Amino acid sequence: MKPYVYAISDIHGMYDLFEKAIANFDPQRHQLILIGDLIDRGPRSKESLLLGKKLVEDYGAVYLMGNHEEYLLDFLKSPEEVGPMYQYNGGKQTVESLLHKGAWEEYSPTEIAMLIRSRYKDLVAFLQERPLYYEWGPYVFVHAGVDLTKKDWHQTSAHDFVWIREAFHRAKNHTGKTIVFGHTITPALHGDMQTTDLWQSDHKIGIDGGAVFGGSIHGVIFDKDGILQDIEYQNLQGPWQPDI
Q1: Is 92 exposed, middle or buried (0-12, 13-18, 19+ CB in 10 A)?
Q2: Half-sphere exposure of 86 toward its Cβ, with a 13 Å CA cutoff?
Q3: Strand partners of residue 199
Q4: What is the mean pLDDT of the chain?
Q5: Per-residue pLDDT for 95 more than 50?
Q6: What is the Cα–Cα distance from 7 to 30, expressed in whole angstroms?
Q7: How far, in Å, CA of 214 to CA of 233, rounded?
Q8: How confident is the model over 122-161, as pLDDT tens digits?
Q9: Sign of CA dihedral 151, 147, 31, 51
Q10: Which of 26, 90, 113, 124 yields a CA-CA distance of 20 to 30 A from 105?
Q11: Which of 77, 18, 81 is nearest to 50 (CA)?
Q12: What is the 3-state secondary structure (H, E, C) of the chain?
């Protein structure tokens, strides 16, 4: 086991910030953990996905399933049913990144799904294999959180691992683990919709600084005793404004 973890979450297609964060990753010393949602909303989802895949394959990174990865897979399975909500939640940007600008208007959802499945077989298969959580020493890394009403948190449903919010944030953590998560932006967790610092409470650490909304990406280095360093990469260009 490597002596440190380097955790990043919720890139959302902000590839330039992803590159900056990865520049501080040391493959010899850090177990890299990507806590899901590399795609949707931001402009460079394809590049973010491919970099995530490369980091897994070349450096043994752990890339966890996020709700937006799940959203893309659900869209590919049921394009007509899922398409409208996926578009609304940032899927249009991922589709245009994978295909070309204007693809959402040019093709039907079924045609888009067929094109992506045929052009990106390996990438789709890779996404289907993403784990829901990763345990490292005293930590659990997970996209959204765990069901703390369960006697054993491992029994959390697949849906809750990638979607849960307030029920996890507010519940007492009796797991004996520190749970590191993304999904809910830290400005919302802090309650002021502007503080992008890490959120820490009851052995829970939220690290999604809301980069795509004008916030930041955190690169957080842990050892078995706690946080060693939090490197915050600010989005200096403001909220990404997609064309809807």
Answers
A1: buried
A2: 28
A3: 206
A4: 96
A5: yes
A6: 9
A7: 11
A8: 999 999 999 999 999 999 999 999 999 999 999 999 999 9
A9: positive
A10: 124
A11: 18
A12: CCCEEEEECCCCCCHHHHHHHHCCCCCCCEEEEECCCCCCCCCCHHHHHHHHHHHHHHHCCEECCCHHHHHHHHHHHCHHHHHHHHHHHHHHHHHHHHCCCCHHHHCCHHHHHHHHHHHCHHHHHHHHCCCCEEEECCEEEECCCCCCCCCCHHHCCHHHHHHCCHHHHHCCCCCCCEEEECCCCHHHHHCCCCCCCCEEECCEEECCCEHHHCCEEEEEEEECCEEEEEEEEECCCCCCCCCC
Sign of CA pseudo-dihedral 129, 137, 221, 171: positive
Token digits of residue 201: 């409470």
Q: What percent of the chain has pLDDT over 90?
A: 95
> Exposed (0-12), middle (13-18) or buried (19+): which is 78, by Cβ within 10 Å?
middle
How confident is the model over 31-43, as pLDDT tens digits? 999 999 999 999 9
Beta pairing class for 216-223 and 226-234: antiparallel
- CA pseudo-torsion sign 8, 198, 157, 87: negative
